[in-house]
Amino acid sequence: MDLVKTDKNPTPRGAKAGFFEASDGVLLRYATWPARHGQSRGTVCLFTGRGEFIEKYFEVVK
User: Fold this and answer.
1) Cβ 28 vs Cβ 22: under 8 Å
2) Does residue 3 lie within any of the structural domains?
3) Considering 4, 15, 50, 59, which has the largest number of Cβ atoms within 10 A of its Cβ?
4) Domain residues for 32?
5) How much is the pLDDT for 58?
6) CA-wise closest residue to 61 among 24, 15, 26
7) How far apart are CA 5 and CA 47, in angstroms?
8) For the chain, what is the mean pLDDT?
9) Whole-structure pTM value
10) How far, in Å, CA of 55 to CA of 18, rounded?
11) What is the pLDDT of residue 35?
12) Are 56 and 28 in contact (CB under 8 A)?
């Protein structure tokens, strides 16, 4: 699955995206990015609303 990018909002490097299926059969979209420098020190999770989309948060990932 590809993330949607624009000239003003490019996809941050290293993105991996896909879907997983919830117990009720609903597909949930996700995206992950590895640590850019050295060892990771934690995890940040963004839980958006039903009408939100991952691409809106590229600035947070950068």
Assistant:
1) yes
2) no
3) 15
4) 16-61
5) 85
6) 15
7) 20
8) 86
9) 0.72
10) 13
11) 81
12) no
